[in-house]
Design brief:
The complex is a heterotrimer of chains A (762), B (459) and C (234).
Chain A lengths: L2 H17 L10 E3 L11 E6 L8 E15 L2 E15 L12 H5 L1 H4 L9 E3 L8 E3 L2 H17 L6 E5 L4 H14 L5 E2 L6 H11 L6 E2 L6 E5 L10 H13 L7 E5 L12 E3 L6 H14 L8 H5 L13 H8 L3 H13 L3 E5 L9 H15 L8 E2 L22 H13 L8 E5 L3 H4 L6 H7 L2 E4 L13 E2 L10 E3 L10 E4 L12 H12 L1 H6 L5 H15 L6 H9 L1 E2 L39 E7 L12 H5 L13 E4 H7 L5 E7 L2 E10 L6 E6 L7 H4 L14 E2 L4 E2 L4 E10 L20
Parallel strand pairs in A: 1-4, 7-8, 7-15, 10-11, 10-13, 11-12, 15-16, 16-17, 21-25, 22-24
Antiparallel strand pairs in A: 2-3, 3-4, 5-6, 5-17, 9-14, 18-19, 19-20, 21-28, 22-25, 23-24, 23-28, 26-27
Chain B lengths: L3 H13 L3 H27 L14 H25 L9 H21 L26 H21 L2 H11 L2 H10 L7 H34 L11 H27 L8 H32 L2 H11 L4 H13 L1 H6 L1 H4 L2 H28 L14 H24 L5 H7 L8 H7 L16
Chain C lengths: L4 E6 L8 H9 L7 H5 L8 E7 L6 E7 L8 H5 L5 E3 L5 E3 L9 H5 L6 E2 L26 E2 L5 H13 L12 H5 L5 E5 L6 H6 L4 E2 L11 E4 L10
Parallel strand pairs in C: 1-10
Antiparallel strand pairs in C: 1-8, 2-3, 4-5, 6-7, 9-10
The chains are: A alpha/beta (762), B mainly alpha (459), C alpha+beta (234).
One iron/sulfur cluster binds next to helix 3 of chain C.
């Protein structure tokens, strides 16, 4: 607050007080008695977990005393309490070793965001109108319970659906148990950057449906097929730590790095060599490398099970001779040979695949090809290669196979549910519980998510923000922010150590919110019966404690030891301290299946009418759009374009010249499924036949900083899926572009080139 | 032929009689000045963000106006002093106009170091004064030098302006009655025109004329050092001192000519400010235009040959880039247009010709100041930090206000002081020669008159 | 021995992720400008990651270079400040005394690195964002210049702590917010007077260069050039 405002406010309150005689008590802020023991000005550090992406980095939260306006027992007042001031990486955490990414740093803003839902809300206007009225927690929970028990009375107890971002840890166990005992189907997960194609490939090639852990610190050669592993993909902080070591961690030995992608990403920007192979041809390139390696006998040809999934491997992949691959990929044959020789002469070398390379109709075959290449390079489960992190039997208790269904495409599962609703199937969901997923924003228009959700009789959301999906809810039961919650996490990658993270709330809640698991437990008890008995805990921390009890039994630790240690450190590993002997999750044998032929990727739209491949990409700051509401993220320039507070359409400089498009022009991008407008950004770092757009902007309803800003590239995507998994092939749409006017591009950078003289006008 | 009475009448008329035109001028100019004061108040209230400045263009109109007005101030005192020392007799009707410009232009220019502050209410921290915290300004900063330079120049110029006004005020005192008489009695400081007083006045003027020349040269040198002392491409240059002084005199003379033309019409001084004055000053202007061109050429050529990357970025943005239109407009205004107008004797001898040339020069020199500042800081070393600038209405209003302010001050000044030095005119004999020397000598209570006569009020 | 705080920036490690940028923002109460002010080139980032393109498609390459105040030993920003608001402290830091700053912006023009930022308006924190403000760092009002301080609040806290523990400050006691966050350890902060410190070691590296060294500002930030693709075995 400015001093001037302060004076104004004092003057106004003063005048009001004078008018009222003594001032009405309800106009004065109550001071609550502090219940924390804090020394003013002295920071305490509390462990927590970053929940902004699936990497699950460990946090330490700097907590200091401050006066916050809070609601307690329905009353607004001032409380002197511990406030989170800064997030740091947890120095000992096996994933992030004290480091955080830009998004993780901004996680603080989630807690203090002015647009958080501050108390339970009940819809008061039409669905989607955004009109809600405040209700009490008792009434809110009662409402949900009565909806659920009404279903039970109609013998439809199972007609409950839970739609969420992929749940992890004990939250998943809780939700799954809750649904199972109601007789409802498993939760439906949805997020845009669904990794199920890679999970499926890893399951098929290596028997693990996990994302790989990259041991970059020990690699000498990295070929990445479209994976933004330093920015947004998999476990970016862990990978960036490894990358730093690879580059300069070993005196005299500098690892090399080649990036293959049609648009230079933040990760690609760091590569020694950028190869803009044709979008969707990454698998062919991988197999061509394998061809050269096999034919020049640069490695022993045995490539285990992974190779058996590749047709023609035994014959030396004759279809992928470099000359043939050149036609498919646009990469000169000589370059392919050179790459193959380099990667084999710099041991250990590793291949990584992710991102747009897999968001294709040929995604699974591409992933399998890279997996086989890795096996050929000898980099699977080997130093400098890829590993699969052992997952302690903590979160997997509901499903011993671990991470099941995760190799099932999320769009397919979501679609199945939506179809039931749209077609009014008998057991279609009558009550939908929504948690943290925003499919209205993150699905292609032809998925008709909004239309389907509008048909669901009752939707309750646990969201702490109103977004495009939760605005459809009838009831909002706002969750605590992560820093106010009990958190737990089992990192599936990013570390070679089996790890369970856990954290108590780092601070007291600011608003009249409740943690989602606590509410669910409360609901379960009020429903009574099976649900109540299968979830015997009053609060989520009790449930966590009992899960840790199981873990303690497994490792023969004294009861309570692990629980205590994990809370102190923020994480625990079975290989830590004197507790040893946890069994890694049993590895299921790969499902025997026939080899999968790599086919040409299919794009939606004909090349004549729609000359450009459309490449949406995860924004370094806004991620998949779920962080667009944070002003720190909006105002941090994109690392490459330096755009702030908006969208852009990235076009190759020369292609744009041909179309008469200049930097900053407003461009219309049209696919067969929709169109959008955004300012043009000309770049030398993108293939001439590709236009790219960051995902994240274009929110219609996501707080004051994100709403009505920029455009959402997902809104013009075709609903194409990778056929084997049913995952959305989000990079398989073709578009056309045209200039429609003047756009507004807010750039942080002045110049493009380092040499000032290159800025002289021609 | 002008008699002494005629001179008295003509030159005292504006002081004694207030025409409707005076009030119209005051109202018009005053409202523009008020608008500028309003704009400044708005800036103070809201924050300096209401200007168009940004990162990296932290200075733009503000410091342009500062340098421009300090430059304009160089016509007056400096020219007047030189002409006095050179005993150029044609100067006599011109000197006061010129000295007034100096004082007012300095006052206006000198406000910009305050106006441009992010926290103008703390301007006094620029001033060395003993405070209990014993914190002095930092004397390494050219901004602190500015304070001394401008302070000295302003003080000197005020003295230089006021000294020769004393006899004229005495004349007004003697020629008027009522409140005017009482007022001018005070300000004429007991001037009775005794030989001793004349002698002291002459000596003082001589000392001031000698002293003010180095001060004037130093002032614009120091202003140039505001830039030259910072390692900014195309600022950090040894040529800046003389370049700025030359530019200052150049713009100053142009400003003076405009003021003279304006007064000539407004106060009906056609008989006093003659084409010969415009012609003579026009020649000076011509020389300064050539000198200015020489400096710009030398500056550009050495930069181009030096080919230092950071400097070349600034160089090209002015020669061919986004600032090129302004740059070439400046070259037209300062050289290509005025040069022929002033070089061709026929045109120079018309007042119109000189006025047109002066007008383009005033515009051109404002642009020159702008182009010294903005292209450099918007293209400073690291291309990632290059930026743009676009002024807002606040800055434009303040700029307009400065022009209105100087005109308003001029109009008000001529209300209180004869704008042409009456006694000097009388001594010098009015060129034309309208007043014969003998007449002047007999009518003028000067040492030249040798009689020490007092000028008695006429009944 | 007096400390001489410095930083090394390894351009071969930096990935352009900008974790440092957000970390600094969080630590130092850097205000958010908002869209309109951003469009007017008034965003404040005490540390920025410059990116420069080289070449044209398909040979286009990109370079990242984090730039923060270089804490120059011959700082042009100090000499020009008329009020001693920009000032060299005993440990060689270029300190910025907000209360003494009257907003001439001269220092920002004089700084060759353009790392000084001005408060064109009073900063605003939409409530309750104000609760996240770091109480160890003052917020800057309208008309005041600000810039990277090398997290001086952390330096002071560590020095006070060491004094309380009756010991010398040692490497690892603390680091700056940007260096602390930087995943690939591209930013290394430490004492240049301690020849055994990591930052001293890096400052002596064969890859060490100074940014705009030719301007003669004597920066205390060392840049370690990227190793090239073909210089593997050096
Ligand atoms: N800048 C500045 N500093 C000053 C002074 C100054 O004028 N200016 N004045 C100095 C002087 S004279 C004094 S006395 C000190 C005062 O300094 P402090 O003693 O620090 O004073 P307070 O801020 O009033 O509050 C102390 C704490 O007690 C808590 N508290 C309130 N009631 C109770 C209670 O019943 N039980 C317990 N356990 N806690 C309670 C409050 O919430 C608060 O957190 O400040 C000194 N410091
Ligand atoms: S990678 Fe970044 S966003 Fe993801 S968990 Fe780690 S810190 Fe959080
Ligand atoms: S955090 Fe480190 S790697 Fe990331 S941009 Fe900053 S300096 Fe570079
Ligand atoms: S980098 Fe700029 S702000 Fe920092 S000390 Fe050097 S001149 Fe001053
Ligand atoms: S802006 Fe402030 S710190 Fe910079 S020179 Fe002016 S008074 Fe000094
Ligand atoms: S050293 Fe501190 S103040 Fe400077 S850029 Fe890094 S975090 Fe910001």
């Amino acid at each position: 607050m400015e001093r001037r405002d302060f004076f104004k406010i004092s003057a106004i309150t003063g005048a009001a007080a004078a008018l009222d005689g003594c001032g009405k008590p309800e106009q004065q802020l109550i001071r609550f008695i502090p219940d924390e023991d804090l020394v003013p000005g002295v920071a305490t550090w509390k462990p927590s977990i970053c929940t902004l992406c699936p990497a699950g980095c460990g946090l330490t939260v700097r907590v200091m005393q401050g006066d916050a306006e809070v609601v307690r027992n329905g009353k607004l007042g001032l409380l002197r309490m511990g406030l989170a001031k800064k997030l740091e990486g947890n120095p000992q955490h096996p994933v992030n070793h004290g480091k955080l990414c830009a998004r993780g740093q901004a996680g603080l803003q989630v807690t203090y965001h002015p647009d958080r839902v501050r108390h339970p809300l009940k819809r008061s206007g039409a669905r989607g109108s955004g009109e809600f009225q405040e209700i009490s927690w008792d009434d809110a929970v009662k409402e949900l319970v009565s909806q659920l028990s009404a279903l039970g009375q109609k013998n439809e107890a199972g007609s409950v659906a839970f739609l969420a971002r992929p749940l992890r840890g004990q939250r998943r166990v809780l939700v799954e148990t809750f649904l199972k005992t109601l007789g409802a189907p498993s939760p439906v997960s949805y997020e845009l950057f669904d990794e199920s194609v890679l999970r499926r490939a890893n399951l098929l090639s290596f028997g693990q449906s996990q994302l790989p852990t990259l041991d970059l610190a020990r690699s000498l050669y990295v070929i990445s097929f479209g994976a933004d592993f330093l920015g947004t993909w998999n476990s970016p902080v862990a990978q960036a730590i490894g990358y730093g070591e690879m580059r300069q961690g070993h005196p005299g030995q500098r690892g090399r790095f080649v990036q293959i992608e049609p648009r230079l990403s933040q990760t690609g920007a760091n590569a020694d060599e950028w190869i803009p192979a044709r979008l969707g041809s990454e698998g062919a390139l991988a197999l061509s490398l394998a061809h050269v390696i096999l034919n020049q006998k640069l490695r022993s040809p045995s490539a285990g099970h992974a190779a058996s999934l590749i047709p023609g491997w035994a014959q030396g992949l004759p279809d992928y001779a470099p000359e043939k691959a050149e036609k498919l990929t646009g990469v000169p044959a000589a370059k392919i040979v050179e790459l193959a020789q380099e990667v084999t002469s710099h041991e250990p070398g590793v291949a990584v695949v992710g991102g747009a390379a897999l968001a294709q109709t040929s995604g699974l075959a591409t992933a399998l090809a890279v997996n086989a290449l890795n096996e050929l390079l000898g980099s699977v489960n080997s130093p400098g290669g890829i590993f699969f992190t052992p997952v302690p039997a903590f979160a997997a208790s509901a499903d011993p196979q671990g991470l099941p269904g995760r190799s099932q495409g999320q769009l397919a599962a979501l679609n199945a549910m939506l179809q039931e609703i749209l077609l009014d199937r008998p057991h279609s969901p009558k009550v939908l519980l929504l948690h943290d997923a925003n499919p209205v924003f993150a699905t292609p228009p032809d998925a008709h998510v909004q239309a389907a959700l509008e048909k669901v009789p009752f939707i309750a959301s646990f969201g702490n923000f109103v977004d495009e999906t939760s605005v459809l809810a009838d009831l909002i039961l706002p969750d605590h922010s992560p820093l106010e919650s009990w958190l737990d996490e089992v990192p599936e990658s990013g570390t070679l150590t089996a790890t369970v993270s856990v954290a108590a709330p780092a601070m007291l809640p600011l608003h009249n919110t409740r943690s989602m698991p606590d509410v669910l437990l409360d609901v379960a008890h009020q429903l009574g019966g099976n649900v109540s008995t299968s979830l015997p805990w009053k609060t989520y921390d009790e449930m966590l404690k009992s899960a840790f009890g199981e873990l303690e039994k497994n490792v023969n630790a004294k009861s309570g030891d692990v629980w205590k240690k994990a809370q102190e450190d923020g994480w625990w590993s079975p290989s830590e301290g004197n507790v040893t002997g946890v069994k890694p999750r049993p590895v299921p044998s790969a499902a025997g299946r026939a080899p999968l032929t790599l086919t040409e990727p299919q794009f939606d739209g004909s090349p004549d009418a729609y000359p450009f491949s459309f490449l949406p990409f995860a924004s370094t700051m806004l991620y998949d759009g779920s962080l667009a509401h944070l002003p720190w993220m909006q105002e941090t320039p994109d690392p490459l374009s330096t755009v702030m507070w908006g969208s852009w359409v990235e076009i190759n400089t020369r292609s744009a010249e041909h179309l008469g498009i200049r930097q900053g022009d407003l461009v219309e991008v049209a696919s067969q499924h929709g169109k959008l407008q955004a300012p043009a950004l000309l770049s030398p770092g993108i293939a001439p036949d590709v236009v790219a757009m960051p995902v994240g902007q274009g929110h219609e309803n996501f707080g004051r900083y994100a709403s009505h800003r920029g455009a959402n590239p997902v809104s013009i995507l075709a609903p194409t899926v990778e056929p084997e998994t049913g995952a959305l092939a989000w990079a398989a749409t073709r578009v056309k572009i045209s200039k429609v006017g003047e756009g507004k591009l807010i750039l942080f950078a002045g110049g493009m080139r380092e040499n000032p003289v290159e800025h002289q006008p021609r | 032929m002008k008699s002494v009475d005629q001179i008295n009448d003509d030159l005292l008329r504006p002081v004694v009689h207030t025409s409707g035109r005076f009030w119209v001028a005051v109202a018009l100019l005053g409202s523009v000045v008020l608008a500028a004061v309003g704009a400044f108040s708005y800036q103070v209230w809201e924050g300096i963000g209401v200007w168009g400045i940004d990162r990296p263009v932290f200075w733009a109109f503000d410091i342009t106006n500062f340098v421009f007005w300090i430059g304009i101030s160089h016509a007056g005192t400096l020219i007047s002093a030189i002409l006095r020392l050179a005993n150029a007799t044609w100067r006599r009707p011109v000197t006061r106009c010129a000295e007034v410009i100096t004082v007012f232009a300095l006052m206006i220019g000198g406000m910009f170091p305050i106006i441009h502050l992010g926290r103008p209410w703390l301007f006094f921290w620029l001033v060395p004064y003993p405070s209990e915290r014993q914190i002095w300004p930092q004397f390494r900063s050219p901004l602190a030098w500015d304070f001394f330079a401008i302070g000295t120049y302003l003080t000197g110029s005020i003295i230089f302006l006021l000294l020769p006004i004393i006899p004229d005020w005495a004349l007004v005192r003697d020629k008027t009655t009522g409140w005017r008489r009482r007022l001018y009695r005070v300000v004429s400081l007991g001037w009775r025109g005794t030989p001793r007083q004349w002698h002291r006045l002459e000596t003082a003027m001589h000392i001031m004329a000698v002293a003010i020349i180095p001060v004037a040269v130093s002032v614009h040198t120091i202003v140039s050092w505001d830039f030259a002392m910072a390692p900014v491409p195309m600022w950090h240059s040894t040529i800046f001192g003389p370049y700025f002084v030359a530019g200052a005199i150049f713009s100053g003379i142009a400003g003076l000519l405009l003021a003279m033309a304006f007064l000539r019409k407004l106060l009906h001084l056609e008989e006093y400010l003659l084409p010969i004055h415009f012609d003579n000053l026009g020649k000076l202007l011509l020389m300064m235009s050539l000198l200015w061109f020489y400096f710009v050429f030398a500056e550009r050529l050495t930069t181009w040959y030096g080919n230092e990357p950071a400097e070349m970025a600034v160089f090209w943005t002015t020669q061919r880039g986004s600032f090129a239109p302004l740059f070439w407009a400046m070259v037209f205004c300062n050289f290509l247009i005025p040069f022929p107008l002033l070089a061709i004797t026929k045109i120079r001898r018309t007042i119109t010709g000189v006025v047109v040339a002066s007008s383009t020069i005033v515009v051109g020199m404002w642009l020159e100041r702008f182009l010294i500042i903005v292209p450099s800081i918007s293209h400073k070393y690291l291309p990632y930090t290059y930026g743009h600038y676009r002024p807002t209405w606040v800055e434009i209003t303040i700029l307009a206000g400065t022009f209105a302010a100087i005109a308003l001050l001029y109009v008000l000044f001529s209300k209180f002081v004869p704008i042409i030095s009456i006694w000097e005119l009388k001594i010098g004999g009015h060129q034309k020669p309208a007043v014969r020397a003998a007449e002047a000598v007999s009518a003028c209570p000067s040492p030249a008159g040798a009689k020490g006569l007092e000028l008695r009020p006429e009944s | 021995m007096a400390h001489k705080w410095g930083m090394a920036v390894d351009l071969d490690r930096c990935t352009g992720c900008e974790a440092c940028v957000v970390a600094c923002r969080a630590e130092n109460n850097v205000p958010t400008a908002g869209e309109d002010q951003a469009a007017r080139e008034r965003v404040i980032h005490w540390i920025r990651v410059e990116r420069y393109w080289e070449g044209e498609f398909p040979e286009a390459r990109l370079k990242f270079r984090p730039v923060l105040c270089q804490q120059c030993d011959a700082a042009p920003c100090e000499a020009v400040c008329p009020t001693y608001a920009s000032y060299h402290n005993a440990e060689g830091l270029n300190a910025q005394i907000y209360n003494r700053c009257i907003g001439t912006r001269y220092c920002a023009n004089a700084c060759p690195y353009t790392v000084r930022f001005f408060n064109f308006y009073n900063p605003v924190w939409d409530k309750p964002f104000h609760l996240q403000l770091n109480p160890d760092v003052s917020v800057r009002e309208v008309g005041v210049m600000e810039k990277c301080t090398f997290c001086v609040q952390r330096i002071k806290a560590a020095e006070i702590q060491a004094a309380a523990d009756k010991r010398e400050l040692k490497e690892g006691d603390f680091t700056t917010a940007c260096a602390q966050s930087c995943p690939p350890k591209a930013l290394v902060f430490g004492d240049l007077n301690d020849s055994a410190s990591e930052v001293s070691r890096l400052a002596r590296s064969r890859r060490a260069t100074l940014l705009l060294g030719e301007v003669g500002t004597l920066p205390k930030v060392t840049y370690l050039e990227k190793d090239s693709w073909h210089s593997e075995n050096d």
